[in-house]
Design goal:
The chain has 339 residues and is of the alpha/beta class. It contains eleven helices and 17 strands.
Length: 339
């Protein structure tokens, strides 16, 4: 048997503790990856606290991992032992349904999620379907890649999916784990970038990340001054907002797109959408091809998230740092099982 060392919570909201479990033979279509680094996403915290009501315990979080392949199944093409790969939100997809064959493996109805119903990457080893073991370009630093595999692709995929042009004007709501990466991507993409933030302390940083201007979402005068100017708004936050004021900043045929996991209903007046032919939409992460393109783009433009690093043995300190809202702006755990 193959013993895996990990950090697991035994109950909702509990502290993570050292945990071991056994794995059987490696399935033919999977690869086994020895983990070097794993980012912490707010989704890990949501699962730890069972906010979505789907967590199973013991729970091993972690779905922003980078490591080296140590074992290959017999039907895992295109990869090799020792290769550096990343693992994100998805761990499998059927590869034969209409959705998968259409290139949208991330939307497969039978897709496996790395931390749902299985153990994730707060561990020394993780297994995934070969499609979701994603080769990492040499130009990217391992410790900073993990957050790109969830937060990064979440904000990058809409640029591909909606065919955003460098001449367009894009707003980003929320300068946090998702938003700060979005600003970097959009600036390199060539767009005029507006950052929305209710925190004055983040305005200078937003400009450093790539925003051309920063608007306080609480300043009604500043909001009115940009009415009708934006082609796309990426909303990265989960809190309720002044929706009418935000929609008013969109140009005709503009789009408000959700990538933050908001669970509160959004009140909408259809007539206001109709008058300017506006769209409201949302998306999760992205298909494998989009992740490859994102990593190539990040390598070309030397884009990486701003991270704070903790040893994985200090995972509870790291989770509390995130829970307290102190992360600036993504947390990465360095696997120290072998030390």
């Amino acid at each position: 048997m193959n013993t895996v060392s990990a950090w697991a919570a035994l109950a909702a909201g509990g502290q993570l503790q050292a945990y071991e479990f056994e794995q059987g033979d490696l399935p033919a279509d999977q690869v086994e990856v020895e983990i070097d680094h794993c980012g912490i996403c707010h989704s890990d915290l949501s699962m730890l606290d069972n906010e979505w009501g789907i967590a199973r315990y013991p729970l091993v979080p972690g779905h922003e991992a980078v490591g080296r392949i140590v074992a290959l199944g017999a039907n895992a093409p295109g990869l090799k032992i020792g290769q550096r790969v990343g693992i994100g939100w998805n761990s499998s997809s059927c590869m034969h349904c209409h959705t998968c064959l259409g290139g949208d493996q991330h939307l497969c109805v039978s897709a496996g999620r790395t931390i749902i119903g299985r153990h994730g990457a707060f561990a020394n080893r993780v297994r995934v379907h070969w499609v979701w073991a994603i080769p990492v370009p040499d130009a990217l630093e391992s410790s900073a890649v993990g957050p790109l595999l969830c937060g990064g692709i979440t904000v990058f995929y809409p640029l591909l999916h909606f065919g955003i042009k460098p001449t367009q004007r894009v707003g980003v709501v929320g300068i946090g784990g998702l938003g700060h990466i979005a600003l970097k991507f959009l600036r390199a993409w060539g767009c005029e970038v507006t950052a929305f933030s209710s925190s004055e302390s983040k305005h200078a940083e937003a400009l450093e990340f790539g925003a051309h201007r920063v608007v306080s979402s609480r300043d009604k005068t500043a909001m009115r001054a940009i009415n009708g100017s934006l082609d796309l708004i990426l909303n990265t936050v989960s809190a309720p907002l002044e929706w009418d004021a935000l929609l008013a900043t969109l140009a005709p045929k503009g789009r408000l797109h959700f990538v933050g996991s908001a669970i509160e209903p959004m009140p909408l007046v259809p007539l206001k959408l109709i008058q300017k032919q506006l769209d409201v939409s949302g998306s999760p992460t992205g298909p494998r091809s989009a992740i490859d393109r994102m990593l190539e783009f990040a390598a070309r433009h030397q884009i990486s998230p701003q991270i704070e690093r903790f040893a994985m043995s200090r995972v509870n300190d790291a989770m509390e740092h995130l829970r307290a809202g102190k992360a600036r702006y993504r947390i990465v755990l360095d696997a120290d099982f072998r030390k």
